[in-house]
Amino acid sequence: MARGVGGQSPSNVQSYLSGVSYPASKDDLLSAARRNGAPPDIMEVLRGLEEPEEFGGPQEVMKAYGQERRQQ
């Protein structure tokens, strides 16, 4: 499994998105992450996600998350 710096592995990120109903907007993801206590570094990456109209599921979120992390 891929590991990120500062606890930003995909499984850690998904734990902060617990409770999201898909399809979900980026605002839905940010609200869930905030509610679940995501640290500032994860919130920053989520804010920077390339935003489709909606994310169809966790796999789409993780794909966008990985792309955003590579750009930082």
What does this structure look like?
The protein is mainly alpha-helical and 72 residues long. The protein has a domain at 22-71. Helix content is 54%, strand content 0%. It contains 4 helices and no strands. Helix 2 packs antiparallel against helix 3. The chain is globular and about 25 Å long. The model is unreliable at 1-6 (pLDDT under 50).
Structure, briefly:
The protein is mostly helical and 72 residues long. Helix content is 54%, strand content 0%.
Overall pLDDT level: 85
Strand composition percent: under 5%
Structural class: mainly alpha
The number of E-state strands comes to 0
The N- and C-terminal alpha carbons lie at a distance of 20 Å
The major pleated sheet works out as:
none
| Amount of helix | 40-55%
Order of helices and strands: HHHH
Unreliable residue stretches: 1-6
Number of contiguous helices: 4
Q: Rg, please?
A: 11 Å
Large-scale geometry: globular
List keywords for this structure.
single chain; 72 residues; mainly alpha; disordered N terminus
Topology:
Elements lengths: L9 H7 L9 H10 L4 H8 L10 H14 L1
Helix pairs in contact: 2-3
